[in-house]
Specification:
- The complex is a heterotrimer.
- Chain A is mainly alpha-helical.
- Chain A contains 16 helices and 3 strands.
- In chain A, helix 4 runs parallel beside helix 11.
- Chain A is globular and about 65 Å long.
- Chain B has a single domain, classed as Cytochrome-c3 Hydrogenase, chain B (Orthogonal Bundle).
- In chain B, a hairpin with a 2-residue loop joins strand 4 and strand 5.
- In chain B, helix 2 runs antiparallel to helix 3, helix 4 runs antiparallel to helix 11 and helix 5 runs antiparallel to helix 6.
- Chain B is globular and about 80 Å long.
- Chain B starts with 6 loop residues before the first strand and ends with a helix.
- Chain C is α+β, with helices and mostly antiparallel strands.
- Chain C has a domain of about 100 residues: Alpha-Beta Plaits (2-Layer Sandwich), CATH 3.30.70.3270.
- Chain C has a 3-stranded antiparallel sheet with strand order 3-4-6.
- The chains are: A mainly alpha, B mainly alpha, C alpha+beta.
- Chains in contact: A-B, A-C, B-C.
- Chains B and C meet through helix 2, helix 5, helix 6 and helix 11 of B and helix 2 of C.
Chain lengths: ~375, ~375, ~180
Amino acid sequence: MTQALLMRYLLWPLVKFLGAFIVVQAIVAAMNWVERRLLGLIQARLGPNRVGWHGLLQIVADPIKFLLKEDIVPSSSEKVAYFLGPMLPLIPTFMVYCLIPFGPPPMFIAARVNVALLLVLALTSTGVYGIILGGWASNNKYSLMGGLRSAAQMVSYEVPFGLSIVGVLMICGSLDLVRIVDYQANNAWNLFPQIVAFFIFFVSMNAENNRTPFDLPEAESELVAGYHTEYSAMKFAFFMLAEYSAMIVNSCLVTLLFLGGWTMAIDGKGLTTQQLVSMGVLGGIIGLAIFLTKMMFFMFVYIWFRATFPRFRFDQLMDLGWKWMIPLALGNIVVTGVFVLIGQERLMYWIGLATLGAIGFHIFRKPVPAVKAKTAHEVAHAS
Amino acid sequence: MFDVHEMEINFGPQHPSTHGVLRVLLSVDGERIINAKPVIGYLHRGTEKLFEHMAYPQCVPHTDRMDYVASATNNLGFVEAVEKLMGVTAQIPKRAQLMRVILSELQRISSHLLWLATHAIDIGAMTPFFYCFREREQILDLFENYCGARLTLNCMRIGGMPDDLPPGWLDDLEEFTGKFDAAVDEYESLLTNNRIWKRRTVGIGVISPEEAIEWGVTGPPLRGSGVNWDLRKALPYECYSELDFEVPLGINGDTYDRYLCRMAEMRQSNRILKQCIPMINATPAGDIKAKISRVVRPPEGEVYHSIESPKGELGYYIIADGKSTNAYRCHVRPPSFVNLQALPAMAKGHLVADLVALIGTIDIVLGEVDR
Amino acid sequence: MRVEHPKPRWTDRFLLLDLFEGLKTTFYELFQPKVTVRYPEERLEPADRFRGMFKFSYDRCIACKLCAQACPIDIIYIDVHDEQREVDGKMKKLKVLDRYDIDVKRCMFCALCEEACPTKPKSIWLTTKTYELASYDRNDLYFNMQELEYWDERPRYTGLPEENAPTQLEGQKMLTGGHE
């Protein structure tokens, strides 16, 4: 009996957590290569392509380099805080993996909690402490400014981040991520009725992760490297690890909340959770694949944004957060409330669809200014 | 209770966005700049003193190294000054004049491309950097085909040009000019309408026309403030008076207007290049040098001659003693150096992030500032 | 001509079209051909007039020192002595070159020496299409007359570790040129 309980509540979740951990860490390592390669391809160059086939061994080479580099500790730094800095943001992001369902339950979720969403928000918001500590403890003016920027940014964007979810909750009526996904499978993706919330969530998510156009804390051209200026070797890698892990967590969240998670169904037709569960192991794998595809799309969007946008200025960022995002999120709650009250959720779907359609129409209306550059092979004489 | 004091930051000389070795002593209150003081001299090479010990033709390669991203215009300014001193300006053949115009307009485009690349990457948009360099590379290929060097060209001689255009060069140029407008459209699609770019540049570092004239600012920063002063129009040299082009002027004198001005200037330069191709085809091949003695020994006197370099008014002041083959004194008026002195006034009250945008918008090259 | 400020419509601003415009450009570029040259597997062929490593011809040189005079940084060192020599059955006074050294590490490749050279064809020229001049020792870049004349046979840069690279000829400096 105790053995069965132990199995059910300790060992099995632990195995699942480790599985998720390993998979996510692999994705993080791969993302390093994917990001550089994609940025390269977007920017008319090739990106890392020397180590292994298409540079794929870069995934291995980078961690080895980080491990072998000299670990420099500035003599004037605050030692304890300096060491704590890179580690603090890692722990909560790792813990979040327990709560995220990567596929149809019960197989792909380490711990199903009925307030999972709240817990995820609570845990991810602690990531900022490490950055502030690290920035302050480095005893470097640029680091300090980076840390301060980061603190202000994360605290401000935590509010619209949380508020944007409320609309989803009002429609779905649950904080349990599995039930939110099921609701979407039985109706439609929350992206359509909650397009404003999706926009706010996505913007705040970029801001939370210090990604372009909100990468002020590590703005290279302004603050050299921001809060991790003084960090080297594995400590720097920890910051990177935390950043990419948080990116993955947020991509998972946006997939679960707005894009129907591992399901691929509208109005209960298609690959719903029941459908996938009934298919057994195959269904699980299909669900996982759908989920990872959606998640990777958002990771791609992160990189795409980084390649495209300039950086906001610090005060403009706060301006955007407090004067636009928060009122917009509150307005979204009110509007959603009204629609839910009069029982016209369906109408919201059409509004969302119309907005997306309008954007799509306008995007394809104007052609891209095509530049036909000479390729390397046209100018080079291969020897 | 609290001791309030400003934070002093050494912005540079080793910093990703100081365009070389500019050092700015910043006093900041939080992120707001109270005072910004540029400290220069880290790249001082004594070029002016070197000129006093060199024969005039030998100075030309040294002028390359002042504004090293726009060496053709540096060459042009120097050789024209010496020609003016010798009084042979009128003897320069038409073909040589057109070649000089083509090279300096290509150089203007390439310098502006480099400016756009670094300015955009300073503000955080990293992709225009690579697109700009893609097109700049084609310009450098043209330079390489003409004179054999890509960056430090040494492509002009006192009294004319060193070589005639190689066969097929004008076709390459025509191909480039045909494609280039689309390339500018592409950069603009990433930046001009972008609301983040606009937020970062509109209203940043405003210089009023009066202030701009008082500071002695020239080039795109001056025209961005709406002052119609382009030496190609105001004091035409070479055959610019025969060419049809317009001088883009800004409205508000902020960073965004200077950006728009330079983008428009690239299009105008391209327009000039397109006009030059049929004109140069009409001139006899090989007629590229005025008949002057190989030993350059100008008569006693002094001259100030300035041209419109990509960054502003580039002037050379030369005193000749009439006996020797080297200048008694040669002073350079570099546009970057003069434009840089507007930085403290522009930066005051802005944030640290804006300083980066401002350094970019002035478009300094430290080789020219320090000489 | 005043520059034109873009004036987007409010609908365009509302739908974030300015941002999507940039995203579209970058997405389009993702699938465009790339301009990178994968050196050293691929190499660019320098232009015909490309100013690269020097080449010197002892036979053509008439020891007039014009190149040394033209050099803006005085890195060409020439020593000459006069000699009586029989040419076409007559005794003639000839200039004989003892030393012709170029301190290539200080050279700025302005090609003024080539321009000054009065012989036809030139006895000093830079159009050798060679740009791989890097060296581990700065003294390797000081070239004397013989080295300036005979450097073609040297192996070019391959990107391989040194033990795998073709062995260099004995008694010659490592100078890697773009020669076929």
